[in-house]
Model the fold of this input.
Amino acid sequence: MFVEFGYGVLLVSFLVAIYSIFAAIYGATNKSASMVESARRAMLLTFPLLSLSAAALVYLLVNNHFEVSFVYEVTSRSMPTYLKVTAWWGGQAGSLLFWSWLLSAFASAVTIRKWDRDIEFLPWVIVICSTTLVFFVGMVAFYENPFTRFWLVGGNVEPHLFAPLNATLFTADDGNGLNPLLRHPGMVIHPPMLYLGFVSYVIPYAFAMAALITGRTDDRWIRLTRRWSLWAWLFLSFGLVLGGRWAYDVLGWGGYWGWDPVEIAAFMPWLTGTAFLHSVMIQEKRGLLKHWNMILVILTYALVVFGTFLTRSGVLSSVHAFANSPIGPLFMGFVSISLIVSIALVIWRWPDLRGETEMKSMLSREALFLLNNLLFMSVLVVCFWGVIFPLISELFTGQKVTVGPPFYERATAPLFAALMFLMGVAPLSAWGHSTLQTLGRSMWKSAVAAVVVTGILFVTYTKNIIALVGFFLIALVIFVTLQEFWRAARARQRAQKENFLTSLSRLMGRNRRRYGGYIIHISMMLMAIGILGIELFQTSTQGSLAKDEQLNISGYTLQYKELASWDDRGEGVNYTRAVVDVYKDGEYIGELNPRIDYYFDSQQNMTIPGNRSTLNDDLYVLLVDWQPVSNAGATFKVYVNPLVNWLWIGSLAFMVGIIFAAWPDRDPAEEPARSGVARSSKQTSAAD
Done:
């Protein structure tokens, strides 16, 4: 019953979303407020409908309905209930339903806001959101259906949505279980965060297209979607960080980022989204870069769908990717049509999107922000080429040539260094006009402090020139940012006769986006410390040890003590755990327990490292192999990752900065829009 109910509601959701598209178009073109309202209500209806369909699937997952092929693929009786629920997004079909459910929630949320000032946007926002929803729900309903069941047909078990002739329903005794790699807490949260980021970016795109269609070329659509863009960036950033932590904890290669194609697929919309957040400030402050902002939001939306395609089509080899699927061409068709239509709209409105002022100084803040955007786009080009090159090589030569981390690292390192330098300079520049002299006066103290820090590191830590350049840039950005906090708070303190902390808190509270951005800049520099540490100073070794034998690396001594293996049939896991004593410079500092967990249902291993973490470094020990005879010997892989924990500390500060910047303060409906030069008086009066 739940299968039929879930699929039936899914089909109704699909039809309701289609209706909302045509009702919105009819209402907009015929100026029928009643039809637009009908389309809005249809859009609102999709969320409860898809919630019912999702609830039916979760019921099937939790209650071991192994006659359903999706349930069989991603769950087993030994899995705890919370993992059965999160298995919803652990497979192809379920994850697409999850994507659709989130999109219906976000689209519904945006349609219940006050539309009095912006009623002309409403039908076209509905059209864009509903079109995207129709595509994803259609994928679920007709290609990757999570409600397909097993049927016994002529002695063979086959998956079908409906019962074939002369078939009987087949129920397996147990399921395959979720991939062990996906049972890690980070991976339980990582996909929802990415999906939230992906889906959130549909809203700014929808408003941008509505602005182009209606001819409202001012910055109103940007103000309306400012918070959506910030939260989308937060979710996507958080998803990337969680993915890095998951990789560090369970993939067993001593790193957090391997330039995997699917990692890059999520990173590319983050790049364009970051560029967009910087670029829209120029349009709001100076009325410039309207064409560029439209292109950035279109690119971000397209890359969201393209990244979903890369993950789900099976065209790329990745530990993150789903199996081969026939939906790849459909995704490519959708993203291609979306790009063509979007670019056509930009070309149509191109004359109306001209800037209201001119960029007159190459050192002004808007010029430096534009350079910042160009560097982000350069990183994007490197990433995009690296991802599609294997596909192109296979198409033309028949051989898939893989692009590895060295390519990305060599190509992006100078670009990231330039971005760091701009983070130190741009906050000191002025809107409209700046000179080398004014910038020099503003930053010389921070530059001197950064040189002093770099000199100390040269004497006490490293003489690696690349590392020293990196540490200088990190120190420069941190000192410049702290100087900006100090300078502004002191000015307010003198003017308002307040104590320093009160001045600082009130200043930050009234300029959340600016000072939240500064917190983000500092947090990214903390993350950069960890990245430099692991990339430039990581050491590793591997060795087979008998009981009580030792292994030395970077001042650490590891002594193998014993190994134990036991089954937990309740959890369906065999645990094999080693005991390793750790000494630092001859002094005992603790015990580590690297282990390998073997899951009986999926017949797969998961490697759990033994970690000892400090601000200075991370000792990372992996159990690679062992002798079947008790305590006969074991093989260990050991990494020492200097400074890597600054990456995780910076990530936490990063989240604080984004939340602070995105925290609600003033309703965008109360903010005046910049009236574009291309808007007619009729458009202006209608908008106001």
